[in-house]
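Is this the right way to post structure tokens for a design question? Let me know if I should format differently. Anyway, here goes:
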């Protein structure tokens, strides 16, 4: 799964404060029902299907947690769609690798090939948009990180021990992460941290304790469920709903092959791995 060993700090890539549209919800204008999306990875059919489901849920804002590009064959289209639809976007490690802000020598061979292809195939508008992003945001109702609070670029949070260390650093009670492509939740109550994968359709009460949640990946799920994943968060009722969406995997896989990218990047979409 990993493109690089976990918990490698990157001092040149930092975090930024939230813009007014995503500040802590005060008054009638701030978002309360938020769609949390992450890890599209150039998979346009999956992104379109998820946004259609988002539109049906009457959300106030769409927050994207990073990795618009990498692996998939539609980087320009996915970036354009995110620029039009998302109220907030973070940078992921693949976005930063395409920009040469981190070394793709640390990626797996297939990830590196996809990053090089994306770098060479993307328009300047795509690269400029990606270049405007950072991998974490603080100052709103929840903390937002591509990978983790203690390493927003690289750390894969997959254990309760890792989650506890992240919670100790989070300025917020609830944080959202992506990067692992696995729909997860970690909870700390009475000093103990518990974690588990979360199935699509699950609705959890986030009103008490500390939480670290992962919506799962839009464009390349790795939790055994090939359907595109996202999460609906209500910061008034403090509930979270993990959702899964069918999409035309054939279209995404065939586009990967047609672009000359490794065939395995398309084949894994059918498996959710």
């Amino acid at each position: 799964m990993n493109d690089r060993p976990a918990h490698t700090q990157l001092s040149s890539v930092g975090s930024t404060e939230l813009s007014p549209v995503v500040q802590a919800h005060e008054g009638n204008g701030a978002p309360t029902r938020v769609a949390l999306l992450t890890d599209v990875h150039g998979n346009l059919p999956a992104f379109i299907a998820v946004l259609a489901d988002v539109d049906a849920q009457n959300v106030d804002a769409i927050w994207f947690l990073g990795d618009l590009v990498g692996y998939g064959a539609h980087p320009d289209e996915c970036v354009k769609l995110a620029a039009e639809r998302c109220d907030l976007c973070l940078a992921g490690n693949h976005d930063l690798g395409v920009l040469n802000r981190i070394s793709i020598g640390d990626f797996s061979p297939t990830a590196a090939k996809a990053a090089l292809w994306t770098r060479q195939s993307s328009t300047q508008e795509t690269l400029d948009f990606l270049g405007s992003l950072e991998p974490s945001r603080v100052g709103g109702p929840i903390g937002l990180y591509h990978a983790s609070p203690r390493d927003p670029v690289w750390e894969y949070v997959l254990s309760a021990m890792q989650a506890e260390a992240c919670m100790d650093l989070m300025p917020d009670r609830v944080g959202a992460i992506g990067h692992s492509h696995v729909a997860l939740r970690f909870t700390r109550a009475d000093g103990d941290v518990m974690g588990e994968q979360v199935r699509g359709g699950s609705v959890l009460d986030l009103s008490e304790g500390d939480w670290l949640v992962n919506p799962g990946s839009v464009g390349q799920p790795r939790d055994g469920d090939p359907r595109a994943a996202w999460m609906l968060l209500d910061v008034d009722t403090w509930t979270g709903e993990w959702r899964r969406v069918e999409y035309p995997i054939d279209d995404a896989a065939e586009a990967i092959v047609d672009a000359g990218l490794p065939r395995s990047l398309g084949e894994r979409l059918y498996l959710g791995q």
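Format looks fine. Someone answered above. Worth noting: Helices lie at 44-55, 75-85, 93-98, 109-121, 124-131, 160-169, 249-258, 264-271. DSSP finds eight helices and 13 strands in the chain.
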